Amino acid sequence: MGILIWLVTGAVVGAIAGMIMRESFGLLGNVVIGLVGAFLGGALFAHGDINNSPLTIGTFSVSLIGAIVLLGLVNLFRRGSLR
Questions:
Q1: Is 53 within 8 Å of 59 (Cβ atoms)?
Q2: What are the DSSP calls for 34-72, one per residue?
Q3: Which of 18, 44, 48, 77 has the most CB atoms around it within 10 Å of its CB?
């Protein structure tokens, strides 16, 4: 059941980050962006403890910020600007 929650949360976080950054990667891309963004956000803000935490507004926000940072980095390397 835990992996299903990770996938659904990853899809939601990736979709919201994509809307904020005006990017579209499809369902699978949103899941990947959301999961990698959650890992990145956890590494940046939660000292790696986000994966051991329950799903709360705080962990969701950290995941969203991580996904936005990830999309900003993707845009920076792909287009040369953050957009």
A1: yes
A2: HHHHHHHHHHHHSTT-GGGS---HHHHHHHHHHHHHHHH
A3: 18
For residue 42, what are its two tokens?
């956890």
Nearest partner of 7 among 33, 43, 44, 46, judged by Cα:
33
In whole angstroms, give the CA distance from residue 72 to residue 62.
15
3-state secondary structure of 80: coil
What percentage of the chain reaches a pLDDT higher than 90?
0
Question: Is the predicted pLDDT of residue 51 greater than 70, yes or no?
Answer: no
Q: Which residue has the higher pLDDT, 24 or 36?
A: 36
- Please report, as a single letter, which amino acid is at residue 68: I
